[in-house]
Amino acid sequence: MSLLFKALADDTRLKIVYSLAKEELCVCDVASILGTNVATASHHLRLLRNMGLARQRREGKFVYYSLSDKNLGALMDSALKHIRDEE
Fold first, then answer.
1. Is the pTM of this model over 0.90?
2. Least confident piece of the model among 33-37, 66-70, 73-77
3. What average pLDDT score do residues 62-77 get?
4. Burial letters for 37-62: b for 16+ Cβ neighbours within 10 Å, e otherwise?
5. Domains in the chain and their CATH numbers?
C-alpha cells in the first residue's frame, strides 16, 4: 500500500492516474494534459507501469495506457469526494 501512495504522492503521476481513470490515453495525450513533452510523460507512465498501476497497449506506432485496476479509479473518486465534502 505504501508503494501505491508513494506513486500518487507525486503531482504529475497523480494527474496521470486521474486522467487514466477517465479513459485510455496515448502518451502524446498524457503529455498534452500535463503540459510537458512526450519524454517526461513516457517516463512517468513507465514508472506507473513498473509499479503495476498502469498497463500499456501498442497500436501501430502509438502506445496507449490505461489503469491496471479499476479500483484505483474508485480510490481517486473517493479521495476527490472527501476533499469536496470538506470545503
1. no
2. 73-77
3. 92
4. eeeebbebbebbeeeebbebeeeeee
5. 2-86 (1.10.10.10)
